[in-house]
Amino acid sequence: MAKEVSNGGNNVTTKPPPEPSPLRRAKFFKANMRILVTGGAGFIGSHLVDKLMENEKNEVIVVDNYFTGSKDNIRQWIGHPRLSLSVTTIKTNVIGTLNMLGLAKRVAQEIRIARIFNTYGPRMNIDDGRVVSNFLAQAIRDEPLTVQLPGTQTRSFCYVADMVDGLIRLMEGDNTGQSTWQSSEFTMLELAETVKEFAVESESFSVTGPKGAALMDTDAMQCPG
């Protein structure tokens, strides 16, 4: 609303400053974000980097030592003004986690921690020792798929694109930590049968392990709930 101000007998009409753009109050409006991705050249990390770089407001910092990751996974972003790459040695397990939390505190205002379960998809290292990788490698080599006894132990699997979507939702939500997994489970025999259906060359699979061996239910279940 305009106001009249007296200035030596002269009335001067003044207007209040303009209101900020309504976009600033919109739910989808966000300021620029600076996001640190450890292991950003790895299997899951590189897919996360791809997704984050789609948003022109994001500045992404990738930290990786290429121990299991590859520069080829993020080659399309190298040299991009919104991506910084740091090749450094990252200690693993507890010490590595503490180091990365310390680094995140220095470059970010908020931290999100995700517990990731069995993930598969493009850029997966065929020799990474995961059960999906092992079955695919054996099928490609036309070898019997090896299933450890009893074969009824279950796993929950998540496609890498779904995993990245979950990580983005975690980052944008209010929770500071979350486990990410698919609710459906497969036995190892079911997984072997599925891989065999797609790999025509591999017509059989073998069940190995100590004769009569059985796993306790708590050890056989890998899907949290």
From TrEMBL:
Gene Ontology terms describing biological process: D-xylose metabolic process
Gene Ontology CC terms, in alphabetical order: cytoplasm
MF terms in GO: NAD+ binding; UDP-glucuronate decarboxylase activity
A Pfam family: Epimerase
Top-level division of the source organism's lineage: Eukaryota
Matching InterPro entries: Epimerase_deHydtase (IPR001509), NAD(P)-bd_dom_sf (IPR036291), UXS-like (IPR044516)
Domain NAD-dependent epimerase/dehydratase: 35-71, 111-177
Keyword NAD: yes
Keywords, in A-Z order: Decarboxylase, Lyase, NAD
Positions of the UniProt region annotated as Disordered: 1-23
Cofactor: NAD(+)
Name of the molecule in the record: NAD-dependent epimerase/dehydratase domain-containing protein
Species, as recorded: Buddleja alternifolia
